[in-house]
Design a protein that fits this description.
Helix content is about 40%, strand content about 20%. The protein is of the alpha+beta class. It folds into two domains: about 80 residues, GTP Cyclohydrolase I, Chain A, domain 1 (Orthogonal Bundle), CATH 1.10.286.10; about 130 residues, GTP Cyclohydrolase I, domain 2. Strand 2 and strand 3 form a beta hairpin. Bound molecules: guanosine-5'-triphosphate (GTP) and zinc ion. Zinc ion (ZN) binds next to loops.
């Protein structure tokens, strides 16, 4: 990839070409290697870690692990590092003039803590108030998943989701709440299995107390089907 194309891609990784504090920190040459090249290199790195730990990589059960982990990093759990994987968020005109809040709640979040490379598992709740544009429901789930598929801190992920949807929808009136468990807190270190982390970002009208309250009340609604 040419350097100017790579730089454009780096800008896109944050929030739609605007570098902000919510931008994922990337090296300038982040897009130099193809996925195939990344997998080959990571495979050797994982092999090295396993050998350093004293594991016998000729063992039947272990020998495929370096390749498996490398593929999983590039194609799955860190796939959202590449802007080419950003979902196309199809929008429509709000012909039916729906003027109330729309909430997409209980979106499953599987992400990875960038400090320990351990899983973050939880739920995201996303809301917006249309000012003329409507986005396909599933696109909100897809946008959440795209930003989750990176090494993350929860605060940044929450902001990236809101900033992305603000651009897609052409309005500041977007909010996101994420409640998630960090396995680095639950399964190691302090090993507090009960605790979870709540983060929120409220844009535009969601900064108003009553609008924020309405959103939070919808999240609390028991909608088990
Ligand atoms: N703010 C924030 N912190 C996070 C997130 N994920 C993990 N952390 C924290 O990152 C911190 C890293 O702290 P360090 O002291 O460098 O790491 P550590 O020695 O493994 O810390 P312990 O987890 O306390 O054992 C820990 O307190 C984690 O709980 C996140 O999404 N947001
Ligand atoms: Zn962690």
């Amino acid at each position: 990839m040419k350097i100017d194309k790579a730089l454009k891609a780096i800008e896109a990784i944050g929030d739609n070409h605007v570098a902000t504090s919510a931008t994922t920190p990337l090296r300038e040459d982040a897009f130099k290697l193809s996925d195939k090249e990344k997998i080959a290199l990571i495979k050797e790195d994982v092999k090295h870690i396993m050998e350093t730990l004293g594991l016998d990589l000729t063992d039947d059960s272990l020998k495929g692990t370096p390749q498996r982990v490398a593929k999983m990093f590039v194609n799955e759990i860190f796939s959202g590092l590449h802007p080419e994987r950003k979902p196309d968020a199809s929008t429509f005109e709000n012909h039916y003039k729906y003027g109330e809040m729309l909430v997409e709640k209980n979106i499953t979040v599987y992400s990875t803590c960038e400090h320990h490379l351990l899983p973050i598992v939880g739920r995201a709740h996303v809301a917006y108030i249309s000012n003329g544009t409507v986005v396909g429901l599933s696109k909100m789930n897809r946008i959440v998943d795209y930003y989750a598929k990176r090494p993350q801190v929860q605060e940044r992920m929450t902001m990236q989701i809101v900033q992305d949807l603000q651009v897609v929808l052409g309005t500041k009136d977007v909010a996101c709440v994420i409640d998630a468990k960090h396995l680095c807190v639950n399964s190691r270190g302090i090993r507090d299995i009960e605790s979870s982390t709540v983060t929120s970002e409220f844009g535009g009208k969601f900064k108003e107390e009553s609008v924020r309250r309405e959103f939070l009340d919808y999240i609390k609604l028991d909608t088990t089907f």
